[in-house]
Amino acid sequence: MSTYILLAIVAIALYGIFTYNGLVKARQMAEEAWSGIDVQLKRRADLIPNLVETVKGYAAHERETFEAVVNARNKAISVPAGDVEGRAAAEGLLSQALGKLIALSEAYPDLKANTNFLELQRSLEGVEGEVQMARRYYNGAARDLNVKVESFPSNLIAGQFGFAKKPYFEIENPADRAVPSVKF
Length: 184
Hints:
Layout: H1 2-56, H2 63-77, H3 84-104, H4 109-113, H5 115-150, H6 154-160
């Protein structure tokens, strides 16, 4: 009888170890995924000053639009690391402001033909695609961690060792979900 008890204890201990390691792996995957989003959003933020300067040369009287883009960019890059909801909201505002900036090119045919603007536009379009892929990857990693944190019996180990759910990187305002159109 004592052999069965010993086997049960070993089995429970092994289950606990495997579950704990699975939770650690899931948490690390979510953190790595968030890092991927952060990198892509930084690339986008780095493109914005060049884009604004290029457009300024053609549309100097559109100061309000430029200020909105710069303010939204500054707000987005100032969100504390790890604040997924805050970053999502700030990035949504930045996407709206960028959409307005890109729309200015319709009123300025010379700007639409400017090679620097076209190159920046292509770069922005590429970064937007990378942001979307990074977002999907992060949300998948967050989902996997959240399932483990909430599922029985792994939730018992998750609770004991302080594993918490990760928020999804979602944009709350449906208007912010639209990627800025960069087609000409």
